[in-house]
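Students often ask why we bother encoding 3D structure as a string. The short answer is that it lets us treat folding as translation between two languages. Here is a chain of 204 residues written in the first language.
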Amino acid sequence: MLLTAGTGLSAEGSDASPDPFDAAVDAVKAEEFGLANELFFVLAEQDDHAAQFNLAILLEAGKGTPQNYSLALEWAWLAQLGGVARAKGLADRLAEKLLPATKDTIAERIDARLQARLSKGHSAAIMQYVQFNQAILTRPDLETAYIWTLIGAALNIDQAAKTRNDIEATLEVRVVLTAQETARAMFVDQGMASLFAGDGAASR
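And here it is in the second language, the structure alphabet:
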């Protein structure tokens, strides 16, 4: 894992867009932080989770752009959901600096972003949405998380069945049965078997 001098920036997970990512890392090394922000932002918007993490680092430090803890937390949470191991520590540190209402607003934006990806058939967003409802929300929504593990397991998404069983063990029977009916209706009505089998299922 590449660490650029004095920033904590990481190149992990950058294989989806190697040239732009490498250019952003090179910009950091050259202390061209404004350019690095621009390059990482483009990749972050494309759900490159390593770029999201690095953008959060720059926003926290105020390098190349004014320091902004709210935006930094948003990108750090997205990187965490995308599997960047070091993002959780960064997100936890940033969350301590923000008001509860601000964190709720950020969570609403992430919710909308993930739902948009789900509607386009991005299968990687399924377990990210599960984790979002389990671990990011101030008040976890385990029923929604369970519904999406049911869908993920039906689609043979990695870790979905195990997570489904783990969450089910924490829910009341009536909630389990209602969620199962909801998941079945969503799966059929939205044609999820086809939706998530298309190009949208490709993920970084």
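Translate back mentally: The two ends are 17 Å apart (CA to CA). Keep this in mind for the problem set.
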